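Example record

One chain of 271 residues, shown exactly as stored in the release files.
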Amino acid sequence: MEYKKYHIKRLLRELQTNISGSDSSSNEYQYVNFVEAAINNQEVFNSFRNDSRYRDILEHVSDELGKKYYFNLREELSHKEIVDLCKSVKNVGSPQLSIFEDSELNPTTLRYINVGLDLRKKFSKSKFENIVEIGAGYGGQALILDNFFEIKKYTFIDLPQVNQLIKKFLSYHQPKFNYLFSEITSYENKEKYDLFISNYAFSELPKKLQITAIKNIVSYTEYGYMIVNNFNDLSFRYLNKAQYSTYLKDLKIFNEIPESYIFNKVLTFKF
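Predicted structure tokens for this chain:
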């Protein structure tokens, strides 16, 4: 019964959003404004990952979920290996830290490591040298993947303001890969990628943009990996389960481990 109530409320919300043409527009506007401030104001940038205007959108992995990621990682990695991987994403922007054994670690970085480990397991025989990511936040996932694969080129696709934030954040690091930026609506490159990745972001795009992204970007990748949070039988605003199967070849669906939300799934596919 709880599931049924959730889906009814969700569909009503999606229908209302489609009619109004906006989905939490005030929050999105606030987020973009804050990102612009972080780009242009060093004082804001120095603590952007700990600001509620940013954490509401991205850096919001709770201590409890962070522990689940940590213990899941400990099944295959030592504590030192986890700590060393976390050092790949510097604590630029003053993120919230939690204690794991004797170390202060960022829960969101633990999520990125969890994704990296999952990718390596699901695509154990693949070499990902050219990767494209939609919705990259500040670039943390890319920095972690730099430890798992011999990446030569990484393409970030996001809003222009977010791309500038990623560029600024990466300037504090020394990734081994070359990187470039683009946007879904202005993307024109038809380059072949080894891997497409998106942590939640793709599934939050309106259906029209999802289809555009698949036709112009995703379909040019050999393998794909997405964590999705709008994967439902019926949807007014997003691709539904059947449509995902139509647009993505060789689609496989997995439970998210650990589960960050009851309806989230991990999708892999191959073109």
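Notes: The chain is about 40% helix and 15% strand.
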